[in-house]
Amino acid sequence: MVKKLENIGFYTLNDSRAKNVSLDSPLWRCELLLTDRCNFSCPYCRGPNQYTKGELSFEEARYIIYLWSLHGLKNIRFSGGEPTLVDYLVKLVHYTKFVGVKRIALSTNGSADTALYEDLLNVGVNDFSISLDACCASTGDMMTGGIKGAWDIVKENIKFLSKYSYVTVGVVLTDDNFNELADIIVFASSLGVSDIRIISSAQWNNEEKFKNLFNDTDILTKYPILNYRIKNFRNEKNVRGIKEDDCNRCWLALDDMSIAGNYHFPCVIAMREGAEPVGTIDNKTMTEIRRERLDWIKENKTNENNICKRNCLDVCVEYNNKVRELNDCEKLIKHTKNTK
Fold it and tell me: Is residue 248 within 8 Å of residue 323, measured between CB atoms?
């Protein structure tokens, strides 16, 4: 049986949360895109779209965090683009900790000065997610868009941060690095990381290639996220995709949220893949925004939405199935009618 990811790192997909999902449940995992700027040109990156172009000011970012904190925000992730390019990041993290957010995560390409990462540690970042798409400089520099020496900088920053914080590395699988996956996993383990996330790029999602990826039992036992995904692959369950017998409502959208610019999206993956936003955030309370999200859940069947159907992650599919198992979903859907 595949071990579930309950309260591991940024995963909060436990049965209690699934059982108690409602308009009044706390916000569990919110992601804020601070900028569309990035100093890498990774070949699988979608880049900004019409909704994600530009950069939030400090005041705009702080206001969103304030709104989230009013609804009991537990976990936040700052991303981009590359969020370390934003000059107010340390100040924003300090504010986020001040309003009581317990887990403050940063998705970064790992290329910033070590001194900046040390400052971020000191003001409250306790979860770093860093891309590591290779186990050697030749492939690693290529995967950054050909930036010579980038891979060595990323490697050293991973080693440094792993000494002081929870660090996961994300390995995005493409034809360029698929054959190196076992070596990448072993190399990442040698850097002292907390876990390893492997995921096929949205453009490259071939189930047949994933059946026999990695068999080192000692390493799999050490890393629950990696173990979860490898076992899913062996059971012919891909990272991405909703099947016909899966829940066709995204209950995660009720107490997770992704915001870019003036828009809130069902999730960060939908946003990256060009989905329309659920709505704007201008002059709205967080209660009004969450009501919009309830209406979106009611009106959108994920197994009929091409972006959701093709790209929803295994952990999210499992969570929504658990909500269906533990609740009368018709009552949850009807609840949207009473929240105008």
Answer: no
Query: 58 and 79 in contact (C-beta within 8 Å)?
Result: no
Residue type, 177: N
- The overall average pLDDT reported for the chain is 89
- The predicted model scores a pTM of 0.92
Hey, how many other C-beta atoms are within 10 angstroms of the C-beta on 330? Answer: 8
pLDDT in tens, 83-123: 999 999 999 999 999 999 999 999 999 999 999 999 999 99
- Residue whose C-alpha is closest to residue 259's, from 21, 59, 52, 97: 52
pLDDT band at 232 (very low <50, low <70, confident <90, very high): confident
- CATH H superfamily, domain 26-234: Aldolase class I (3.20.20.70)
Rounded Cα–Cα distance for residues 56 and 128 (Å): 21
Where do we find the tokens 């080693």? 159
- In three-state form (DSSP H/G/I as H, E/B as E, the rest C), the secondary structure along 303-338 is HHCHHHHHHCEHHHHHHHHHHHHHCCHHHHHHHHHH
* Contact between 128 and 106 (Cβ < 8 Å): yes
DSSP summary character for residue 272: H
